[in-house]
Amino acid sequence: MVPRFVFQLSHILLLCIFIFPALGAPSEAVSPVCVNPLRVGYNDWPPYAWQDPQGEAQGLDVELLRAFAEHLGCEVTFINVPAKRSHQMLKSGSLDMMMGATKTAEREEYALFSAAYRDETVRLFVLDENKDKIRLTQWQDIFSQKLRLLVPISGWYGVDYEQTRQRLEQEHLLILSPDADKSVQMLTYGRADVIIGDAMAMPYIASQHQGVRLSPLKPVLDRNQIHLMLSKQTLSLSQLKQFNAAIKALRANGKIARIVYKWQQISLAQQTKTSHQFNSLSAQYADLLTFN
């Protein structure tokens, strides 16, 4: 016969097992996604990212990252830094994250890449007033028509450009510039015939910074998927998984699409405004010629 206190003791032990199942077993608690505010590097690349006069980060990628961070309950500190330096800072862990990145084998050595959160298209452009003078339907037309090509020194512009860059240099058709803003400026000065760049950023920069309108040419040189880059020094695979889950969730509920569409409309509105200003000035100039 088993004493009564033994039954009572065994009942207590069973209750402990059911009520406190974690005791004596490994913890499965999920750690916070972001213990500290994320340090996110960005450089001026409108409409994706730039620093406004008040020192605040603005733009499409900035708004998307804020949405991802909010979904995960993370705080973000944006740090404006030149593109090349930002990669060095990501390597060392001085930055936790970068936006608007194309995945490459070289970058994967020091960064984790999120799932793609938007696309990027690379095209050729001419000044709007030259759109009927320059008819380029394929990449090889640059050589057959001897068109001078302006290319910002940093960036990926597609396989056609990479494979023929040496030929462009040999035939004196390649003109490099420090950045997209300078490229547009040089184009307006007649330093080249055609400019290469991001399908949304290049017209936006031309209209907002230089007050000119660009027209796209027919060839689409490249389409890339764009990712977040996470520093391997400061962020983990677990945190990468959480950001991928946020990207998936915001794509599913339409928030990514709404933000992208908003900035597409802002870009178009800026270009339309520039076009109206240009047409107004042209009309005034024509009136002066008629009067004289």
TrEMBL record:
Domain Solute-binding protein family 3/N-terminal stretches: 37-267
Q: InterPro entries of this UniProt entry?
A: Solute-binding_3/MltF_N
What is the superkingdom listed in this entry's lineage?
Answer: Bacteria
The positions making up the signal sequence are 1-24
Q: Which UniProt keywords apply?
A: Signal
Q: Into which family does the record put it?
A: Belongs to the bacterial solute-binding protein 3 family.
For this entry, the protein name equals Substrate-binding periplasmic protein
Q: What is the lineage of its organism?
A: Bacteria, Pseudomonadati, Pseudomonadota, Gammaproteobacteria, Alteromonadales
